[in-house]
Amino acid sequence: MHSPDTTAEKPSLFDQPKAVYAVAFACVISFMGIGLVDPILPALKTQLDATESQVTLLFTSYLVVTAVAMLVTNWFSSRVGAKRTLLIGLVIIVIFSALAGASGSISGIVAFRAGWGLGNALFIATSLAAIVQSARGGFAGAIILYEAALGLGIAAGPLVGGTLGNISWRGPFFGVSVLMAIALVATALLLPSTPKPEHKTKLSAPLLALRHRGLATMSVAALLYNWGFFTMLGYAPFPMALSITQLGWVFFGWGLLVAFFSVIGAPWLQARLGTAVSLYIAFTLFAADLALMATDPTKQSLMVGCVIAAGIFIGINNTLMTQAVMLVSPVERPVASAAYGFVRFIGGGLAPFAAGKLVEHFSVHVPFAIAAVAVLLAAVVLSTAHRTLADADRGIDEDGHTVADADVVEGEVADEFGGAPGAIDELIQSKR
Q1: Contact, 323 vs 409, CB < 8 A?
Q2: Stronger pLDDT, 392 or 220, i.e. the higher one
Q3: Taking the CA of residue 228 as centre, how many other CA atoms within 13 Å lie in the half-sphere pointing to its CB?
Q4: Is 213 part of any domain?
Q5: Is the pLDDT of residue 408 over 60?
Q6: 37 within some domain
Q7: Considering only 128-137, 344-353, 361-370, 379-388, which range has the smallest mean pLDDT?
Q8: Residue 215 to residue 331: CA distance in whole angstroms
Q9: pLDDT, tens digit, for every residue of 124-153?
Q10: How far is the C-alpha of 208 from the C-alpha of 229, rounded, in Å?
Q11: Long-range contacts of 421-424 (CB under 8 A, 24+ apart)
Q12: 146: which residues sit within 8 A by CB, 6+ positions away?
């Protein structure tokens, strides 16, 4: 045994190898992907003569494909290695985002967004692993860089989408393609080759993991919560009736709060109230926020305030739910993350399309009211695992075993695609 070299482990955010910055840059662009299209949704409806439910399929195709891809990303990367998986994901994003920009119909854009979702899932599954491998400052330095990329991408996505969307609705798609192509070349040239993992993940592992009650309960709660989240994200731009630039600024404000409360707010609240109580509060307040939207979705000042405020609750929920899943599940963290991601993104993918259909058949109030009920139900479902969450705070999984390296997981930030857990486990194993 020897004492750790604290000097070597001190995070260094700016003094990093070029490979780290190449991957971090790609992470920023990748995290822009969801919020990027929000400002141009109404413009796509008008210019492509599409219905609102057709336009919301941009979210549905992207997220449902991402959900299914979650079942195979770990299986795939455990066989071809992290760098190859990362580069394949980048290539797919470059191609399909460009095809979406070149498309002349809403159906074409929807189809190409699906391919984009596949590429994003492959990229995110290994991006943190690549940063961990190359960053100076150890794990802590890698997490700081990853959090910085996460926050910048989430906040900048809507603003970039609004700026490029003012030129043309095609602008955000071509912009992502060009930026990701730059990231692809830089990553291919600068990132060292990574060995294939010794342990290969079974294809059936994520689905089999859902047999564990704690993981299944939290996954169902996340599905319901994501129904509310993506109803707001995917449909709220329509009734607000704002310009592309105005929508970009609204969702930029939302993204800033998501980033801040993911990285700083959630850990602060968790340290004082515990995971379970923090989530109950965040779920309840988010449900109240959605219920307020349901009262008058066409009132701009109300919707702008509620959408921006939603970033607080979404940031808290995303981080604390992801951390809790990693702790309560007795299976490997990458497998637990894949199972959890699969279930929750099904809810996220279906919600925007359902919102458009509900408005067509009923009224603009209905989807937000249903979203509020769904988030409240998420809190109720989560409460059935209260003891499990309390055990997780003490570093014990649902089978009563002490979780190895629980303190590492507690520092993890949700990345929306579950890439972080795999990198964490690879780092832990490499140090043993």
Answers
A1: yes
A2: 220
A3: 36
A4: yes
A5: no
A6: yes
A7: 128-137
A8: 9
A9: 767 766 776 766 665 555 666 676 677 778
A10: 27
A11: 421/326, 421/333, 421/334, 421/336, 421/337, 422/74, 422/77, 422/125, 422/126, 422/128, 422/129, 422/333, 422/334, 422/337, 423/126, 423/128, 423/129, 423/131, 423/132, 423/142, 424/139, 424/326, 424/333
A12: 24, 27, 127, 128, 131, 413, 415, 420
**pLDDT tens digits, one per residue of 145-156:** 676 677 778 778
CA 202 to chain centre: 24
What angle separates helix 244-260 from helix 138-167, to the nearest 10 degrees? 170
HSE-CB at 83 with a 13 A cutoff on CA atoms is 17
Range(s) of the domain holding residue 250: 14-430
Is the pLDDT at 343 greater than 80? The verdict is yes
Q: What is the mean pLDDT of residues 277-299?
A: 94
The single-letter code of the amino acid at 119 is G
Report if residue 6 sits inside a domain: no
**301 located within any domain:** yes
Measured distance CA(302)–CA(290) in Å, rounded: 11
What CATH code is carried by the domain that includes residue 405?
1.20.1250.20
Cα gap 412→230, rounded to integer Å: 23
The CA distance from 157 to 149, in Å, is 12
Domain count, the chain: 1
Structure tokens at 326: 């990693």
